[in-house]
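lol ok so funny story. i was supposed to be doing the assay writeup but got distracted and ended up predicting the structure for this chain instead. priorities right. anyway since i did it might as well share w the group, maybe its usefull for someone
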Amino acid sequence: MNKNFKKGFDAAWALLPNGEVKETREKIMKILGVQTPGSFSLYKRGKLIPQADKAQEIINLFTEKGIYNVYE
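and the output, tada:
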């Protein structure tokens, strides 16, 4: 499957159960090396594109949660 990093991971984010949102946000912010919600949001919406290794870590994180449509 081809990944479209300009779409961000917003669609996958919407599938997260409410109880996992805070923990997942913290993990992704750590992966990306960002500290503000604004920066996180830019990556989530695809306005900023992460480096390939960081994008793969985000994909892996969602995959562990059973969410496979990351960057699609």
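The chain is about 55% helix and 0% strand. The helical segments are 10-14, 21-32, 37-44, 52-64.
back to the writeup now i swear
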